[in-house]
Write a structure and sequence with these properties.
The protein has helices at residues 3-45, 55-64, 70-78, 91-97, 106-116, 120-128, 140-147, 156-165, 173-181, 236-251, 267-281, 283-289, 311-321, 336-339, 353-362, 366-375, and strands at residues 193-194, 209-210, 220-222, 233-235, 256-258, 303-308, 327-331, 344-350. With 377 residues, it is α+β, with helices and mostly antiparallel strands. It has 3 domains: 3-75, no CATH class; 91-181, no CATH class; 193-375, Muramoyl-pentapeptide Carboxypeptidase, domain 2 (2-Layer Sandwich), CATH 3.30.1380.10. It binds zinc ion.
Length: 377
C-alpha cells in the first residue's frame, strides 16, 4: 500500500471521529436545551391560567427574571406585562391584584407610585379616577379622606373638588366625606337622582332623590283608630312595628299615637302641607318643615309623625328605643345641615331592624347609610 494513501485513510478516520464527536456534542446540547425548556414550561403548566400559546414568552421572561416566582411571572405574561420596556417590577403584581386594574394605565400607576409612595390599591384607585392628572396633592389631607370609614371610591373626585371649593371652612375629613356622601355638592331638587321603591323599606327619598308624583305604595294599611283618630295609613310592616313600639312604650308609661293623619301622604296631600308651611313661615323656612311634594318620604308610607305624652321624656324614650322596632329619628338635632331639615323629634322613619340598629350605634344619617351600604362602592 502507498504511504500517502495510508496517511489519507488515517486523516479520514480522524476526521470521522471528530465529526462524530462534534455531532454528538451538538446533539447533547440540543437535548439538554430541550430538556431545560421543557422543565420551564412544565413549571408554568402547573400554574392556574397557563396558556400553551405563550410558552416562548414564559421561557424568555423566566430567563431574564429567574429569581421571581413562576406564579408571578405567569400572571405578568398573561397580562402582557412582560412586554413593558421598564422590565420586571415587583409592584406590577400588586397593581394586577387590585380590583379595577386597567391595563392601559400601568405606566401611570408606576409613575404615581414613584411620586407618592402610596400602596398599590391606593395608586390604582387614584389613577383610575385621574387624580394623578390634577393638582390634588397626595398628602395628609387626601390620606385622611381615603381613610374615612365611609369613603367611597366612586366619589373620590367629588371629595377632592368639594374640598378645594370649601378650603376655608376647615372641615374635618369626616365632615367632608359625610357631606359629599349626602350629595351636598349637588343642587337639591334638581332631579339628579330618583327614589328606588324596589329597595323596599330602605328606599331613600330626600331633597336629592325625588319620588314620582304617581307613586303610591301597594302595601298600605289603615291604622287603628286608637293610633290615629284622623285615619292615617301606613306601610303594613312599618305599622306592625309601630304597634310593637307603642306597646313597649305603654309598659314604661308613655302613650304613643300618630300626630293627626301623618303617616302616608299622597303627592297631592303633601302639596297641601308644603303650601301651608310655606305660606305660614315663608318659603325658605317652610321648606325646612315640610318637604316639597315629590321629595317627602311620607309618600312612601314608611315615615310617621308621632305624638307622645310627657313630651320631652316620651320623645327621648322613643329616640333611645325606636331602633329595636326598626325605626330611626330621621332628622336629628346634630344633622340639620346634612338632612336639610330642622330637628324633628316627632318624625320617625321605618328602615328595618338592621339599618336602624346600625344608625343608632354609629349616629350616621340614613342618607349616608344609603350612599354607603345600598348604592355601595
Ligand atoms: Zn314627618
Amino acid at each position: 500500500m502507498n504511504k500517502s494513501i495510508k496517511i489519507k485513510k488515517i486523516m479520514v478516520a480522524i476526521l470521522a471521529v471528530l465529526v462524530l464527536l462534534a455531532g454528538s456534542y451538538i446533539g447533547y446540547r440540543i437535548v439538554t436545551e430541550h430538556q431545560r425548556r421543557s422543565r420551564i414550561v412544565a413549571a408554568f403548566a402547573a400554574e392556574q391560567g397557563y396558556d400553551s400559546k405563550l410558552n416562548e414568552r414564559y421561557i424568555a421572561y423566566y430567563d431574564s427574571n429567574s429569581e421571581v416566582s413562576v406564579t408571578e411571572l405567569l400572571a405578568l405574561v398573561n397580562n402582557d406585562l412582560d412586554q413593558l420596556e421598564t422590565g420586571y417590577d415587583p409592584r406590577l403584581i400588586g397593581f394586577l391584584s387590585v380590583e379595577g386594574y386597567e391595563k392601559e394605565s400601568v405606566q401611570r400607576y408606576l409613575a404615581y407610585s414613584d411620586k407618592t409612595g402610596a400602596d398599590e390599591e391606593t395608586v390604582v384607585g387614584l389613577v383610575n379616577h385621574d387624580i394623578d392628572q390634577t393638582d390634588v396633592e397626595y398628602g395628609e389631607r387626601l390620606i385622611a379622606i381615603l381613610d374615612d370609614p365611609y369613603f367611597l371610591w366612586n366619589r373620590v373626585t367629588r371629595y377632592c373638588e368639594y374640598d378645594a371649593e370649601h378650603a376655608g371652612e376647615e372641615l374635618t375629613a369626616r365632615q367632608l366625606v359625610e357631606r359629599v356622601n349626602c350629595n351636598l355638592d349637588m343642587i337639591p331638587k334638581n332631579g339628579d337622582f330618583h327614589a328606588d321603591p324596589s329597595q323596599g323599606y330602605l328606599v331613600l327619598v330626600n331633597n336629592y332623590y325625588d319620588i314620582a308624583d304617581s307613586y303610591v305604595p301597594d302595601n298600605l294599611v289603615d291604622v287603628d283608630k286608637a293610633f290615629s283618630s284622623k285615619g292615617a295609613r301606613m306601610n303594613t310592616e312599618a305599622y306592625e312595628n309601630l304597634v310593637a313600639m307603642a306597646d313597649a312604650a305603654k309598659k314604661v308609661g308613655y302613650k304613643v299615637t300618630i300626630n293627626g293623619d301623618n303617616g302616608y301622604r299622597s303627592y297631592s296631600y303633601q302639596k297641601t302641607v308644603y303650601d301651608y308651611y310655606c305660606k305660614m313661615l315663608g318659603r325658605e323656612d317652610g321648606e325646612k318643615r315640610a318637604a316639597q311634594p315629590g321629595y317627602s318620604e311620607h309618600q312612601t308610607g314608611l315615615a310617621v309623625d308621632l305624638a307622645v305624652d310627657k313630651k320631652a321624656k316620651g320623645f327621648s324614650w322613643l329616640a333611645e328605643n325606636c331602633y329595636k322596632y326598626g325605626y330611626i329619628v330621621r332628622y336629628p338635632d346634630d344633622k340639620t345641615d346634612i338632612t336639610g331639615y330642622t330637628y324633628e323629634r316627632w318624625h320617625f322613619r321605618y328602615v328595618g331592624a338592621q339599618a336602624a340598629e346600625y344608625i343608632h350605634e354609629t349616629g350616621i344619617t340614613f342618607d349616608e347609610y344609603y350612599a354607603f351600604f345600598i348604592e355601595g362602592r
